[in-house]
Amino acid sequence: MAVFVLWPIFLLIALAIKMDSKGPVIFKQRRVGKKKNDFYILKFRTMKTDAPQDMPTHMLKHHDRLITKVGNFLRKTSLDELPQIINILQGEMSIIGPRPALWNQYDLIVERDKYGVNDIRPGLTGWAQINGRDELSVIEKAKYDGEYAKTISFAFDMKIFFRTIFKVVRSDGVREGNSM
Fold it and tell me: Nearest to residue 98, comparing CAs of 55, 135, 144, 138?
């Protein structure tokens, strides 16, 4: 139902991406899912095609040269994440859960193992996302994800869902480039 309701927005975003830069509309990136099984997360492409593929954006030194104009808007509004509805429908992700780590974020994967986080389905948004997002260290992120893994409930998911909307509107915790 979400795909049906959102298809006009998907179409407008796709057209804007195509008008702004060359390359595909959808960006696929290898991520770690439940039980550490890899899958390809889907996002609207926000960077130029020559940008590094497997590096978290907050670690890039010249991110401002790599992010497209439309991409900058999509990232600030988190609209670049909309194609993950397909990942949710395929059972690779859930709406709420820890954000899936890049396949090469070994430090985060190992830290999450300590809390059982890698045993649950990753999500579109999660407890760490609303408690700092890109501003959190790997250790802090894993602890928040561990709290979620230990406390999963419908009420907790609803709290995260509604706080996510507030955080997205304010662009809280979004950090681009290596500024830490």
Answer: 144
The Cα 142–Cα 116 span in angstroms is 10
Question: What is the C-alpha to C-alpha distance for residues 139 and 136, in angstroms, rounded to an integer?
Answer: 8
- Helix (H) or strand (E) holding 23, with range, is none
Evaluated on CA atoms 148, 152, 158, 161, the torsion sign reads positive
The first and second tokens of residue 151, run together, are 């406390």
Q: How far is Cα 174 from Cα 180, in angstroms, rounded to an integer?
A: 13
| Alpha helices for the chain (secondary structure H) | 2-20, 63-66, 69-77, 84-89, 106-113, 127-130, 138-151, 154-170
Q: Write out pLDDT tens, residues 92-145.
A: 999 999 999 999 999 999 999 999 999 999 999 999 999 988 789 999 999 999
- Confidence (pTM): 0.86
